[in-house]
Amino acid sequence: MTDARDTPGAAWPPPAPTERCPCLSGNPYGECCRPFHAGEQQAPTAERLMRSRYSAFAVGDAAYLLATWHPSTRPAAGDLELDPAQRWYRLDILDRTGGGMLGQTGTVEFVARFRLDAERGELHETSSFEKLDGKWYYLAG
């Protein structure tokens, strides 16, 4: 396995493969979101995609965020700016509908907490996802 710090697209060093995954699944990064970020696997469910996207925000992987954004709503590459001062530290999944391995659409409600400078903030969102050609994409939220 390659070192997580070699994850393509990460703007700042992600966790080592044996460290806790930023999505707080309880699994190490190397067995959780890193295989998605590295392009070795595709998220099998809408929730796994949402968790991997949260982790991508946490490690500054704009390329992964854009690649998993639905083509109909994806911003231009230059329109997605990640602030290295913004540190994502907690993800809570509140609810999910659909989005299973056999589904075509799904939603995930979550709260993502972050620090920016000396301030704390949170993003409470219900994101929608759609599967195209067997691959889950973030649609809107």
Automatic annotation (TrEMBL):
Pfam families given in the database record: SEC-C (PF02810), YchJ_M-like (PF17775)
Domain YchJ-like middle NTF2-like: 45-141
Taxonomy, superkingdom: Bacteria
UniProt-listed InterPro entries: NTF2-like_dom_sf (IPR032710), SEC_C_motif (IPR004027), YchJ-like (IPR023006), YchJ-like_M (IPR048469)
Similarity remark: Belongs to the UPF0225 family.
Annotated protein name in UniProt: UPF0225 protein B7R22_07470
Source organism phylogeny: Bacteria, Bacillati, Actinomycetota, Actinomycetes, Micrococcales
